[in-house]
Amino acid sequence: MGQRVYKVLCYGDSNTYGFDPRMGAPEQLPKDVRWTGILDALPGYEIVNRGLNGREIPHSQSACRDLEYTLERHRDCDILVIMLGTNDLACMWHPSAERVGKRLRDLYSLVPGLRCFKEGEKKTLLLSPPLLDLADDREEGVLLEASRGLAGVYRQAAADLGLYFADTALWQIHMTFDDVHFSRAGHAAFAARMQEVLARLVVSESPAEIGV
To answer: What is this structure's pTM?
Structure first.
């Protein structure tokens, strides 16, 4: 009998998409550089990358409808990975981890299709994103403080919603010059950590926090 292949739907923002912020470079890093592409090349996984630059946690009618369509289109996936929240903080007038957490909780009421990825053998992995530490905001540290608060808020939301959880802020992923987007080395390191997380997730029998 051949090795089982787990189909993983990755729903996120530019760091899932694989955005390259360097001027003059193609918008998206090559597939074999992106963390999703690195995982896709491993035996046992088929990765569907549905990252989008600038994406926030869906909270408008159109964004929620788009997510519902994405879930329906990829309903054959075994695992849903969600990594969002960075753009929500960056676009808020008064950034707050609690407000971002509320958007996440509300999402499960607004998009019924999300419940399908908690039924049977299907699983949802919620990732608290790497810290947001913009250079022009370091004096007051408002964004960084709010970003640090996401892990606790997401951890509780995952427990309440019955999701798996991992805190990627602990992974200290290397960023490019803009302090927001993964560098090539950052993508490789993120993929290595995710490989560990997914290996533990697929054998777990109940939602839990997965630390690596």
So the answer is: 0.94
The CATH architecture to which 6-203 belongs is 3-Layer(aba) Sandwich (3.40)
Distance CA 117, CA 123 (A): 5
Over residues 167-177, the pLDDT tens digits come to 999 999 999 99
CA distances from 65 to 14, 53, 113, 116 (A): 20, 18, 10, 15
Mean pLDDT of 43-68: 97
Buried b / exposed e across 71-94, counting CB within 10 Å, b at 16+?
beebeebbbbbbbbbbbbbbeeee
Q: What is the Cα–Cα distance from 186 to 138, expressed in whole angstroms? A: 22
C-beta separation of 86 from 129 below 8 A: yes
- The Cα 52–Cα 129 span in angstroms is 15
DSSP 4: P
Residue recorded with tokens 């787990």: 6
Domain boundaries along the sequence of the chain: 6-203
**CA distance to 13, 102, 107, 132, 187, per residue, from 16 (Å):** 5, 22, 19, 15, 9
Element (H, E) at 193: helix 184-203
